[in-house]
Inverse folding.
């Protein structure tokens, strides 16, 4: 008989319950109760990491931005979320978007290895590893309807559109609406109202 991995406190208890009726020594019963306690602790969700929060924000930005129709080849074309430079999200970004759609469009993550690839994105996360060539990157995107997002100091002052910042223990974001409007992106008033000033 194969035992599947417990998913929660209840399923773990159901898994161990039949074993508690077996003839056993007090030590074995104590060991089973200890395993149950460990399972309960492991089953509880740990708080999200900073990068997981940023991943969730990235996904939600797509819900509150409108792109010109010409940005998509057809009505079912995906929203392309590019990452330029070192990927700080690891597998979290891929896992977060898997199976998700926004306005009936699937979301795909695309690592960008060159500046030429960045104009094929709808959202472009520019890693802090690209700080030295930020002016070149933004100049290369000039006129393209690409929502630029980063976590660099003064990113929005340099014509970036959304920048993650830390305020105390919280992750917030700043928005440069003017930079978005220049490339015909419309940012929802709801998202603008959540931005840090």
């Amino acid at each position: 008989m194969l035992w599947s991995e417990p998913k929660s406190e209840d399923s773990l208890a159901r898994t161990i319950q039949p074993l508690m009726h077996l003839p056993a020594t007090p030590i074995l019963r104590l060991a089973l109760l200890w395993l149950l306690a460990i399972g309960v602790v492991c089953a509880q969700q740990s708080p999200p990491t900073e990068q997981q929060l940023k991943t969730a924000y990235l996904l939600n930005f797509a819900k509150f931005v409108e792109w010109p129709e010409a940005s998509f080849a057809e009505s079912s074309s995906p929203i392309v979320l590019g990452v330029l430079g070192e990927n700080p999200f690891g597998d979290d970004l891929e896992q977060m978007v898997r199976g998700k759609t926004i306005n009936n469009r699937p979301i795909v993550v695309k690592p960008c290895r060159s500046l030429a690839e960045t104009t094929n994105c709808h959202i472009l996360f520019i890693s802090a590893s690209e700080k030295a060539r930020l002016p070149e990157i933004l100049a290369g995107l000039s006129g393209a309807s690409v929502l630029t997002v980063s976590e660099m100091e003064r990113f929005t002052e340099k014509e970036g559109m959304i920048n993650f910042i830390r305020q105390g223990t919280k992750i917030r974001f700043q928005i440069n609406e003017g930079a978005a409007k220049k490339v015909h992106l419309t940012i929802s008033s709801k998202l603008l109202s959540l931005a840090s000033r």
